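Q: For a teaching handout, I want to show students what a protein-ligand complex looks like in token form. Below are the inputs, and the small molecule is zinc ion. Please produce the holo structure.
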Amino acid sequence: MDYQQILAAIQTLPETEQKQLISELTGKVGKREYISNRREKLINKQVGCPHCSSLKFYRFGKDKGSIRFMCKECKRTFTEYSGTWLAGLHKKELVNDYLDLMHEQKSLDKIKEVLHINKKTAFDWRHKILSSFEEVEKKDFNGIIESDETFFLKSDKGSKKLTHKGRKRGGSSSKRGISGDQVAVIVTTDRKGSMDLSVATMGRIGKNDIENAIGSRISSGSILCTDGHVSYKGFAKDVNLTQVVLRADLKQYVKQGIYHIQNVNSLHNRVKKWIDSTFWGVSTKYLQNYMNWFRIEQAFRKSIYAEQDIANCSTEDSLSLNRYRQINYRYQMLIATQS
Ligand SMILES: [Zn+2]
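A: Here is the structure, written as tokens, with zinc ion included.
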């Protein structure tokens, strides 16, 4: 076969197999050794001690197949798994396959069947991994920023769609019909693709919720596009940010040809559709984790090594196991905001 024939043959393969082929040829992924990534980073001093962040540590023997390190700064030891979702995890040999199946968004029942693990394990791993994504790939917002909240009905299992309909006529901001049993998610994006989806509160959001979600990540000189919600006005004023208000009730959809909130509203629709069609709704307790999943998939949607990139992200944050353990506590805090 000549080059053209090979190329034509490759183009008949499904997209996932084309990606695998590229990976094989470039050697970047090879045997899908997803979980060795953090070990290499520690050896190369690209990440710090999980206890104190110091880079002054050295190899200190082995521990059940993992490498142990000793920190000169805080005198504590750790392994490449410490603090990550892999710490203390049994059946690590299944992790690569699990991450693949998760990336393909296979159901927990399917994963259980393929990997011969019980559903509880499949569920726990999912949420350990999703907790790991919460603080990674969070870039600053620049230029034109769009932010708007959306609502999910509080649920032990399912979730229902709620739209922005029913806004008070002539009212500048309030969203009528938003009751305390709805979970507000603040969604923010800029035109370069930085994104945030934060489960904020039960019911109406306040300016502090916006501050907590995105306050530290807005670059100076940015312009914030929002609807007429009074909390966004308060937030913009507090942080001294130029705000462009678009009031749908006054048919203000675009101003000066560039200011609008259509990207963020499109994100609302997509995330809801994804939650509804893939999971048939999710429990409020785990809603932030699904928001993390959506965000991380979006962040790497153009990467041909998305599986590898996302898997690497899952071991980047050595506080993620703590975060996973706080899911219940954070849920109780959220519910306590219900009026
Ligand atoms: Zn240390």
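A: Two things your students might notice: Residues 68 and 153 are 46 Å apart (CA to CA). The domain at 144-299 is CATH 3.30.420 (Nucleotidyltransferase; domain 5).
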